[in-house]
Inverse folding.
């Protein structure tokens, strides 16, 4: 006599096949999840690098084009004109040269060159911030003698 349908169970082969299929599916999902997690910090690094570059560019463009005292600044705290920043290469610091906590893995480079904007003499300022993962972000600004 056959067992009623409600009393039938799974065979061992069906259980093993189910476990294998679920294992493969979970493995695929976990691989995708790990890749997503590994890249989740990238946007944070880019935003931080952009903020650092923007703050340096703003600091530099607030300085005059011509040297007010005729003396080149030797440290960032003494920089008094745009040209003083040319060749700056450092970990991010504030405008007085104090290190900014948490940003020591970044690097800031500044290049200042002469340029012309619509026939007006200007200084082109390029601030490049290299992130801890080696990706560089550059911002360019201009300062005229107005």
């Amino acid at each position: 006599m056959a067992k009623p349908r409600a009393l039938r169970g799974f065979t061992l082969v069906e259980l093993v096949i189910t476990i294998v299929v679920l294992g493969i599916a979970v493995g695929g999902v976990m691989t995708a999840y790990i890749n997503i997690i590994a890249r989740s910090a990238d946007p944070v690094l880019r935003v931080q690098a952009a903020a650092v570059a923007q703050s340096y560019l703003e600091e530099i463009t607030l300085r005059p084009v011509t040297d007010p005292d005729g003396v080149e600044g030797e440290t960032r705290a003494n920089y008094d004109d745009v040209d003083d920043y040319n060749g700056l290469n450092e970990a991010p610091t504030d405008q007085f040269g104090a290190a900014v906590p948490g940003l020591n893995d970044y690097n800031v480079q500044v290049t200042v060159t002469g340029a012309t904007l619509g026939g007006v003499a200007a200084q082109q300022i390029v601030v490049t911030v290299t992130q801890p993962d080696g990706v560089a972000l550059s911002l360019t600004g201009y300062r005229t003698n107005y």
User: Anything to note?
Assistant: The longest helix spans residues 12-38. The CA atoms of residues 114 and 123 lie 5 Å apart.
